[in-house]
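To the structural biology subgroup,

Please find below the input and predicted structure for Methionine--tRNA ligase, which we are adding to the shared reference set this quarter. The sequence is reproduced verbatim from the submission form. If anyone notices a discrepancy with their own records, reply to this email rather than editing the shared folder directly, so we keep one authoritative version.
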Amino acid sequence: MCKKETFYITTPIYYPSGNPHIGHCYTTVACDSIARYRRMQGYDVMFLTGTDEHGLKIEQKAAEKGVSPKEYVDEIAEIFKGLWRFMNISYDRYIRTTDDYHIESVQKIFKTLYDKGYIYKGEYSGKYCTPCESFWTESQLVDGKCPECGREVTEAKEEAYFFKMSPFADRIEKLLTETDYLRPKTRATELVNNFIRPGLEDLCVSRTTFKWGIPVTFDDKHVVYVWIDALSNYITALGYLNDRYDDYDKYWPADTHMVAKDIMRFHAIIWPAMLMALELPLPKHLAVHGWITFNGQKMSKSLGNVVDPFILGERYGADAIRYHIMREMALGSDSSFSNEIMINRINSDLANGLGNLVSRTVAMVEKYFGGTLPSERQAGEFDEDLINEATSLRAKVDDFIEKTQLQNALAEIFKVVSRANKYIDETAPWILAKDENNRARLATVLYNLLDTIRIVATLLSAFMPTTMPKALEQIGACEKCASYGNADKFNVLPENVTVKKGEALFPRIDVEKEIEE
Ligand code: ME8
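Predicted structure (tokenized):
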């Protein structure tokens, strides 16, 4: 048997400094959809997510609550895991940076960089933004505040270890400008102009003023800077320099790291520099998406303007939320969150578009044929166009998945949903049903609709993993029929397919009532 090709995808590991919100959901749901799609394509997938549990911010949050940092992160990590269960996230591994094996690997990574001469001891004097866990020089501040989040910075002066970044500047610039590493590539210019061209400054990689971090083994006054600790997760979770796992050779380099623009710099510059210093292969792609905003501001725990995914999911269904956030956000741009837009989209695309297509088709098979189609067929006008649209869909979705453009993948799928709904109007099955001589034509029309739904629901099951199996069950598609391998073929459902009426996949939401509440 030939070995399956591997596919390794990661989300950022999130700070458990507050409960997860719809922003975290976006990245995780996007990665989950890609992971599911790749599994469907036959890849051996490793999908990693987790929590980034060290650092001053966590230490402070725990102190505010009067609990130990470990007690604090234990509680929030469970809330993250609970949300991922609720959103049907199929991660293969969950890393917590407080896990022993990760700590052991990070200590070895730090020591290796030190032994190779890339880490040296010096003194740090400058500004520190605690919410971003970022060091800044005076010249990088904007109006004296953190250039990333606009919040106050504090004075930091301490003995520290530094990571020499300059030896990697040229290679990193080439990585960003000449390769397909960064997606979208348009972001390369800001990185090169703001960080690389002015001279890559050495990075302060240890702290002595707080304790909640991984101790530097050879100088235990110091804890490892949280970003060195966090970025390492992508390899420690595979077993790099630890015995907990043995997957490094199999899955590294990662195929896709997905992050939002707030942490692009760390993944586009610092992480490649670390890997270059360790002489390890670089990840293939860094997909950078924009922010979900609320009233024009980034939705964030510390700004307090968060939308709770548990509440939305309970109300509208986890799949509807998954669909909405992926359909709204174009890779690279921000997307403003609005309840009204979300409800309208759920109603138009899911309830009226897809849900209605499935329920109407199934209802007609029941009404006109008692639930089971006869074998007679008669081809007619509009069939070819529908069949072509349906069978060419998979290649288009493949292409957008390859480019990490989920919004476009969904748009293509929903074009076929619209095409199928139009086919119902064009062929008018209710008129065909009036004449006994049209039985074969009526059966053909309904079969074509069912087989189109099979293709659509199969491809969509990566994006909406809870509802699509129900749609496939309603149209009588067995597991084999509903496979990726069959998603570019027509006439796959059995000739005498039997449908099974079920509940509405996406109940319609009353916009006015919802907005008033
Ligand atoms: O940065 N819109 O953790 P974090 C879209 N621990 N995505 C959003 C978002 C929003 N409004 N808010 C958060 C950290 N995200 C580090 C990462 S990785 C080695 C260490 C998502 O909890 C998005 O993926 O602040 C963003 O990059 C990430 O959450 C930041 O999560």
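Summary notes: The pocket of ME8 is lined by residues 12-15, 23-24, 26-27, 52, 230-231, 233, 259-260, 262-263, 291-292, 298-300 (CB under 6 Å). The mean pLDDT is 94.

Regards,
Lab coordination
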